[in-house]
Every structure is written in structure tokens, then in C-alpha cells.
TrEMBL record:
Xref: PANTHER family: CILIA- AND FLAGELLA-ASSOCIATED PROTEIN 46 (PTHR15977:SF15)
Lineage: Eukaryota, Metazoa, Spiralia, Lophotrochozoa, Platyhelminthes
Protein name as it appears in the record: Uncharacterized protein
An individual GO BP term: axoneme assembly
Organism from which the protein derives: Paragonimus westermani
Length: 436
């Protein structure tokens, strides 16, 4: 295989797959990671093999049976995976699915941050001891120090470090550990601002043979950092106003508009798919408090949701769950704006992406409601459908329009029967008592 060809994709993909498998506690992944760590822990990694490029053979237990000659990865491949961040990536994967207590998770995140922060970037984490707390057990403390001695000296490529810091920042933000997230942002900003960074720093492993992508990869990294910083700021600003809905909503609305403009500007820069996805996820989280019925009628919310579904469609995202939720919520917003045909179209797309059937019941209920509202001027044959049609129409109008006269007219229109008998006429003349 030619140098610079598809083989250059393999180490990065292996790191991603091994880390994900490690988070799922797969024995084979744990075995491979342990082997790579053992190789890196040697003073001379190639000394463990007679040939630095050849595979190691040893015994392994497969399905409860010990089998010999199980092929291990070469020492050089192990070193490559380590320099691409296999160890911190596996730690992050385990943290995402961890059910440890908060203190243990905090200590793990602090160790990861210390591991990824170089000596010249250590300023933001000078208070790491305060964040992590004091480890009372001496045995645990010894293990942490020993682990740090091995890995704090490991130097990763700056592009790898940046991506790991961004992943750690999003994880910390999701756990509401704002100090760790803020430190990740500041360390990343310091790395980006260094004069020694060249275009090769942002060399994309996904598209290595296109030099024109160097600038785009830097812009994608900066965009992801902007998204993390924007989301952190919105969470911090709105946190004190959780019991003041108006202020809380106003902060998120402003953050939503900023994220929307930044994502639109980023699309013109032709960001990579990962950065676009991060932008969509960030915009979605900022919009969550605005999905309440009084707020989601805002045109800005619909525009943000439309931007999300368009971006995910453009990059052909395989995150079907998010695409389903985005189309479903957009359908509800359009329905509140009395755009019933457009809402039905979005709901049909949501059905396409609900591959697990998780949202099927709720979407079917919304579909039936929209069908009744679409046929508002056709009187249903069943009385229960007629009553539901009235309720749907009542939900779709403003409270200022609910005058006694209009309510009376609504009942006349809905319950008037074509039989022409006296009972139908009486039903059409049901008086509505004014609440005034």
C-alpha cells in the first residue's frame, strides 16, 4: 500500500474503535490496550520483540479456552496508537458510561486534564487540588502518582491534544463540572495561540492527501472550541436564574441566536462533518429551554431547528435519533404556527429516522392531531373526533381570540349536523356562558 494512502487512516480509526470498545468493557479491547500500555512503559519498546515491525505471539483465553499463538499488535503500532491518544481516549470512553460517585469521576477528569496539559499550559489548572479534593486512601494516592509518572511525560500531537481536550470539556460540561470545562477551554486557547503552531498541526487524518484542507481543519478546530465556550457561558450565565424563567429564557434565546449565526458562518467556511455535528448538538442544547409551548412559537426557534435538520442532512449524519427528534420538534413548532402541511412533511421525515420505534407512539399521536386540524372544516362522523377537533383548534389559537361570540360560533360550526332535524339545530345553538 502506497505511503500516504488509505493505511494512514487505520491508526486513528483503531484508537476510536478501541476506546469505544473499552468503554463497553470488551475483553479483547482491554487486552489490546493493556498490551500497548505495556510496550510504551518499556524504556526500549522494540526490545520486547526480535523484529520491531513483526507481531508478538502469546497465549490468550478465547471463549474460556486457552489458545496459543494469539497475534498481538507490533511494538511500532502500539507506539503509534499511544501517541494518538489511546490511553486518554479509553479513559474518556469509560467516564462517559461510568456510574462512579461524583468524587471519583471528578478525580478521573482532573487526572485526564493534567495529563493533557503541558507544562507551559499548566496555568489554568493550578487549583487542581481544590477541584479534585484530597484522596484519603494512601494506596489510591500512590496509584494515582504512579500513573501520573508514566503518562504525564507522554507528548501527544497538538491536534490530538486539542480534540481530547474538547471531548473532555463537553463531558465535564454535561456533568456540570464547570471548572474542568473552563480549564479545557483555556488550555485549548493557549495551544491555538502559540506561534509555533504550523499548518501541519491541523493536518487531518481523515483527509490527509489534500493540503488545501489544512486551513479548513484549523477553522473546524476553532469552531468546535467556540461552540464549547458558548455553551459553557450560557450554562454559567443562566444557572443563577433557574427560578426566574423570564431571565433564564432570555439568556438562552440570546445564546441560541449567537450559535445560529456562528454555525451559518461556519458552513460558508466548509467545516468538516464532525465540527458541523458539534455545532448542531450545541444549538440543540441551547434551544432545549425554548421548546416550551409559549416559546417555541418564536420564529428564531423554528429557524434554528430548520438549520439543524438541514446541516444534518447535508453531512448525511448517521445520528438518526437526533435527526428524528429535530424533525419531530420542528413539526410541533410548525403546527403551533398553523403551518399544518409543512408540519406533516417534517413529521413524515421524523418517522423515517425513528429506526428503534422509541418515539413512535408520540409521533403517531401528533400525526392524528395534525390530521384533525388539517380537516378543520370537515365535521367528523364520530362525536369523540368532533370533540378532539374542537380541542385542537382551541390549542391553536391565542387566548385573546377566545371571546364568547367566537366560542359560540365554534360550537355551532362543529356540532351542526346535516340531517336538518330539530336536535341538530338545538345542538348548534348551545349557549356559552360568559366568564365575565
Amino acid at each position: 500500500m502506497a505511503v500516504g494512502g488509505p493505511a494512514r487512516h487505520l491508526p486513528n480509526n483503531m484508537v476510536h474503535l478501541l476506546a469505544k470498545a473499552s468503554g463497553a468493557n470488551m475483553p479483547s479491547a482491554e487486552r489490546d490496550i493493556s498490551w500497548a500500555l505495556g510496550v510504551c512503559g518499556k524504556s526500549d519498546p522494540d526490545a520486547v520483540e526480535t523484529n520491531s515491525l513483526g507481531p508478538m505471539k502469546s497465549s490468550a483465553t478465547i471463549d474460556g479456552t486457552k489458545k496459543d499463538n494469539a497475534v498481538q499488535m507490533s511494538g511500532r503500532l502500539a507506539q503509534t496508537l499511544i501517541t494518538l491518544g489511546l490511553f486518554p481516549a479509553s479513559k474518556l470512553a469509560k467516564l462517559r458510561v461510568s456510574n462512579k460517585e461524583t468524587t471519583d469521576q471528578l478525580n478521573d477528569m482532573c487526572r485526564l486534564l493534567r495529563m493533557l496539559s503541558r507544562s507551559e499550559d499548566a496555568g489554568p489548572i493550578t487549583a487542581m487540588g481544590e477541584l479534585a479534593g484530597v484522596i484519603e486512601n494512601e494506596g489510591e494516592q500512590t496509584a494515582v502518582i504512579a500513573e501520573g509518572d508514566v503518562w504525564e511525560g507522554q507528548v501527544y500531537e497538538p491536534s490530538v491534544t486539542l480534540q481530547l481536550l474538547l471531548d473532555l470539556g463537553h463531558l465535564a460540561l454535561g456533568r456540570q463540572v464547570f471548572g474542568i470545562c473552563d480549564a479545557c477551554v483555556r488550555v485549548s486557547e493557549q495551544i491555538l495561540s502559540q506561534e509555533s503552531i504550523t499548518a501541519s498541526l491541523f493536518h487531518s487524518i481523515q483527509t490527509p492527501n489534500l493540503p488545501a484542507n489544512f486551513l479548513h481543519n484549523r477553522e473546524s478546530t476553532e469552531f468546535q472550541l467556540d461552540m464549547l465556550a458558548l455553551r459553557l457561558k450560557s450554562v454559567r450565565d443562566s444557572f443563577p436564574f433557574q427560578r426566574k424563567p423570564e431571565k433564564f429564557i432570555a439568556i438562552h434565546r440570546q445564546a441560541m441566536l449567537q450559535c445560529q449565526k456562528r454555525l451559518e458562518r461556519g458552513l460558508k467556511q466548509k467545516l468538516n462533518s464532525e465540527a458541523v455535528h458539534i455545532g448542531c448538538v450545541t444549538l440543540w442544547h441551547l434551544c432545549l429551554p425554548l421548546f416550551q409551548r409559549p416559546e417555541r412559537r418564536n420564529q428564531g426557534v423554528r429557524k434554528s431547528l430548520q438549520l439543524i435538520v438541514n446541516c444534518l442532512e447535508e453531512i448525511r449524519s448517521l445520528h438518526y435519533r437526533m435527526r428524528c427528534e429535530a424533525h419531530w420538534m420542528l413539526a410541533q413548532c410548525l403546527a403551533d404556527a398553523e403551518q399544518i402541511p409543512q408540519a406533516l412533511a417534517q413529521l413524515e421525515k421524523a418517522f423515517e429516522f425513528d429506526d428503534t420505534g422509541e418515539f413512535g407512539e408520540g409521533m403517531i399521536h401528533l400525526y392524528n392531531r395534525l390530521q384533525l386540524r388539517a380537516n378543520l372544516y370537515e365535521v367528523p362522523t364520530r362525536p369523540e373526533d368532533a370533540a378532539r377537533q374542537i380541542l385542537e383548534h382551541m390549542l391553536s389559537i391565542n387566548s385573546s381570540d377566545c371571546s364568547t361570540r367566537k366560542l359560540n360560533q365554534l360550537f355551532k360550526t362543529s356540532f351542526h349536523l346535516d340531517t336538518g332535524n330539530d336536535q341538530g339545530e338545538k345542538l348548534g345553538e348551545i349557549p356559552v356562558v360568559s366568564s365575565n
